[in-house]
Amino acid sequence: MLAEIKGLNEECGVFAIWGHEKAAEMTYYGLHALQHRGQEGAGIVTTDGESLHVHKGVGLINDVFSENEFSRLQGHAAIGHVRYATQGGGGFENVQPLVFRSQTNSMALAHNGNLVNAHQLKSQLEAQGSILQTTSDTEVIAHLVKRSGNVPMEDAITSALGMIKGAYAFSILTEDQLFIGLDPRGLRPLSIGRLGDAYVVASETCAFDLIGATYEREVRPGELIVIDHDGLRTKQFTSPMQRTLCSMEYVYFSRPDSDLNEKNVHASRKTMGKQLALEAPIEADVVTGVPDSSISAAIGFSEATGIPYELGLIKNRYVGRTFIQPSQELREQGVKMKLSPVRGIVEGKRVVMVDDSIVRGTTSRRIVRLLKEAGATEVHVRIASPPIQNPCYYGIDTSTKGELIASNYSIEEMREIIGADSLAFLSTEGLEHSIVEDRDVQEHGVCQACFTGNYPTEIYPDTIIPAYKE
After folding, report:
1. Is 392 marked within a binding site?
2. What pLDDT is recorded for position 416?
3. What does the pLDDT read at residue 64?
4. Other CB atoms within 10 Å distance of the CB of residue 76
5. What residues are annotated to the active site?
6. Is 450 labelled a binding residue?
7. How far, in Å, CA of 96 to CA of 36, rounded?
8. Mean pLDDT, the chain cut into blocks of 10 residues (470 residues total)
9. Residue 278 Cα to chain centre, angstroms
10. CB-based contact 114:86 (threshold 8 Å)
């Protein structure tokens, strides 16, 4: 039997600002725009030029912060983080930004991604006397930075980056400097903008829109940015490499109003839907999307086929996202509470249900059942991404093949499991065609390892969790 363990979970969200008198407040609003990337913990660290001030906690941003906290978060610069637990699990000790204090200087670190060689680095650090306070691989970066000794912070960070491998978009704040970095493959999204004279950095450009900042550019793969009172300077800490931005950012994670690789996410998802219609056409009466991340693809599918798009499923806005529920039984109940079919739209109709992905198949099975219980005569499922057959080791919470229905069953078997009348997925070629503007541009590549098994970095044996066995 397929392991019903976890679903497809977001990564984390990073926000930073330098040179604003209300740095903490701006970070708070920026994190609100990134809340979809992590709901398990949130934190903000500020600097007033002399010391770091921190407040963080478990839960949503509104649960963690109140008006009282901002009187203590003084300073002209701040970094913030919203977290979904991947490596290291949950718990307050793993909520970021992580703060490290020393006699020479202090630093706070916020990180999005996973280090594939974290286990080896932890073993080396512990053998040299380091005591790790968290189970997060983010702490490894801090220990490597401090191990360089009494050298300029920029040099210490550069040295540390030469030792870590995997996916990382990070911000490091000291009393007098802000450092921004992206891994050599650019697996995680990270952009920089301006808010008046202030510099702003965020995992997604939608955070700029919320605070009124202007987008300037994406942080380049292998780039280290240093911001202080002298302004901004940048350098490449590695040789330029072909970018492999996570394709699931386009498929599912990012908000539709964000831009990645200079292309709008909503527009990319519409193109996926159109391409899916070309690859897997079907005769039907209505097209509907699973709210919210699949709506754009469903609209594209409708436009390409001429089948009317209808609101066949309604999302209850006051129910938490089902993937954060701790047991399969509660996940099942969460789906029932989360979505309702619109009987007047689907009754007596052949319905095309467009979704962004299938991980375990549990949610898809329940939605197909909901539509048929509401009177749909046929339900044809179309997935606007290829089958997820391989674990991700870069920050998405799919760690074993046993969790992935497409890794254990054929498409026809999956169709029977979810109860659909037909099932089809977008091809890997179709996905790349939909989201890559120019394949010859080095910065515009994507990672499709979860679909193809072709990982852009070395994967260490102790990174791989053994497959589920009955």
Report:
1. yes
2. 98
3. 95
4. 17
5. 12
6. yes
7. 16
8. 42 94 98 94 96 95 92 96 69 89 88 90 84 81 87 95 94 98 96 98 98 97 97 92 93 95 94 98 97 95 98 81 48 68 97 96 94 97 97 79 91 98 97 82 83 91 45
9. 28
10. yes
Q: What is the pLDDT of residue 319?
A: 58
Distance CA 388, CA 69 (A): 42
Phi-psi region of 387 (alpha: psi -120 to 50; beta: other; left: phi over 0): beta
Flag whether 355 is marked binding.
yes
Residue 466: the pLDDT is: 40
Q: What is the pLDDT of residue 306?
A: 98
At 462 the pLDDT is 59
**Confidence (pTM):** 0.90
Quick one: which of 267, 249, 218, 245 has its CA closest to 434?
267
Q: Is 356 annotated as a binding residue?
A: yes
| Residue 206 assigned to a binding site | no
Would the annotation count 183 as a binding residue? no
33: phi > 0 → left, psi -120 to 50 → alpha, else beta; which? alpha
Q: Please give the Cα distance from 280 to 386 (Å, whole number).
A: 12
